[in-house]
């Protein structure tokens, strides 16, 4: 693409520095959280798992970041970046990141979108150093050559594209909330056994079976007795459904090899109720344009959950069992030691109209329950602290982490009745449907942004025609 603006050297228009080297033996000062490479995604930050290192008072200015700073990855995926919005106070950065502050001739948000375009089209690669592991050094960052539109156009471009990205980020936040709701319900029902314990508590205090049932209904719904009475009057069908669900929970606990579990539940393992199928190994020569795509480690969000931008188009062969479909449960089986963000984490595959076939790669396994309705239950199970602790214990490797092939099928848990697992499926299915919808919306918005990006960068599209172009693309 030809740019209509003058080309300049980035280092002449920004102040930048690398973060602090992580050295536990030499670092002094007070422990503080910092951003590492794995905390920076394209356009956003994952702050769910921040590490800490020691910083001295005189280092706060050099390694601290401020709202509006552009944070750029030095390694991993060199050039990946996001604008810091001041999400947490007094944040610092580690040496794997550059902090970039634009001088008056540039807008940092414009720089973000230039990096996004450059990363998508390989414009950064000539500046990388290293063979096996690529890096974007401080010198290389300064030597980057990019177009310099008038500052007014930079600000306009950042505003137009930023409004789209805000909608994408809102969808991500909504999905995180929905995921948390589903996981909280699973924990209450199948880990903490709240409805069962509510019944037990009432019965031990001399209450009736009806009192115990109402206590379980309160535990399930979060409603008080007065609110349940109102629900019975105003929404009798909802009340009846809630009562039927509460009746599925036992009224007593029993001893097992896992400790106390609800009476009548059986201790079993994932391998007894589902098939665990490892993915397909592949060669780089097989990664070319195709209507088939591999589901890879990049298909997982940090901490679990599915993302559409981690697929690799694939032309090789695979076993029919390795093909996955919307709603299938997958688990990450490897990870790099430095990140260790996704190994053992679950995700539910999301429908993707771009491809006819999706296939799990060698780093991923699909878990197929023998009964279809158990997928949401198994997804909830894989997200529990117990499952995650189990998988960490069965992980080996130094540079690359590997999950033992039997780690997932051997995991033991207390299995509720089929009717109760299906009741959970009915409760969370609407949440997962909405998650799928929000992911699809985010993909459409990202496609709109990527359509506008080169035209805005080149100067082909300027105000006010950009607003018209947005309407045309959105309605296409």
TrEMBL record:
Coiled coil: none
E.C. numbers: 3.1.21.-
Keyword Lipid biosynthesis found: no
Keyword Hydrolase carried by entry: yes
Gene Ontology MF terms in the entry: endonuclease activity; hydrolase activity
Principal EC category: hydrolase
Source taxon at top rank: Bacteria
Entries under Pfam families matching the protein: Methylase_S
UniProt cross-references to InterPro entries, sorted A to Z: Restrct_endonuc_typeI_TRD, Restrct_endonuc_typeI_TRD_sf, Type-I_RS_S_subunit
Alphabetized UniProt keyword annotations: DNA-binding, Endonuclease, Hydrolase, Nuclease, Restriction system
Every Type I restriction modification DNA specificity domain range: 4-180
Family: Belongs to the type-I restriction system S methylase family.
Name recorded for this polypeptide: Restriction endonuclease subunit S
Organism (species): Modicisalibacter luteus
